[in-house]
Specification:
Layout: E1 8-11, H1 21-24, H2 43-53, H3 61-67, H4 69-97, E2 102-108, H5 114-118, H6 122-127, E3 133-137, H7 143-156, H8 165-173
Parallel strand pairs: 1-2, 2-3
Helix pairs in contact: 3-4
Length: about 170
């Protein structure tokens, strides 16, 4: 943003890959390996988590996440908070350089599961002013699901009806 005169920046792939933490938040016994598909297991992420929650250097966070519902919920919330904090910091930094820049996010389809499956809480990002627009990635063969999601996205961006014009045309053509 400081090197080029951008009018708009879009967050793409601004989410965690689908994991099954949410489905396992309250399960006492989680199958070994079920939670391994998680990019949060980086050394820096684990170190930050330990610092925030007062765990010792010797604590095995992955084992604790598997064995403790409390730690699993904290890990889930930690990842959500990290993504929210990144969007806040990045948007603030860009707007400090260019107050007029528009910021959008390419968001996954499946409106109701996005927050729980990917930590992609774009309704909150819109509400807090971190992003100005959503660009829904409605890749589906399910007409009724597409129509339902279209109406939800449209309601999220009432001041920007052009966001949904092509979606509306696609629905009318069906």
């Amino acid at each position: 943003v400081s090197l080029y005169d951008f009018d708009k920046v879009e967050y793409d792939v601004i989410r965690y890959p689908n994991d099954n933490y949410y489905d396992n938040l309250n399960n006492k016994n989680v199958k070994e390996g079920a939670l391994d598909n998680d990019p949060g297991w980086s050394e820096a992420g684990v170190r930050k988590f330990k610092s925030i929650y007062g765990l010792s250097e010797d604590d095995d966070v992955k084992k604790l996440v598997y064995s403790s519902i409390d730690i699993r919920k904290k890990w889930y919330d930690f990842k959500y908070d990290c993504l929210l904090d990144f969007v806040r910091k990045a948007s603030t930094a860009m707007r400090n350089i260019n107050p007029d820049i528009k910021i959008s996010a390419a968001v996954l389809n499946g409106f109701d599961a996005i927050v729980t499956s990917y930590d992609q809480d774009y309704p909150k990002w819109l509400e807090l002013g971190y992003i100005d627009e959503v660009e829904p990635m409605c890749y589906t063969n399910d007409y009724n699901g597409f129509k339902d999601d279209y109406n939800k996205y449209k309601d999220l961006t009432p001041t920007r009806p052009e966001e949904c014009i092509s979606l509306k045309e696609a629905l009318q053509a069906h």
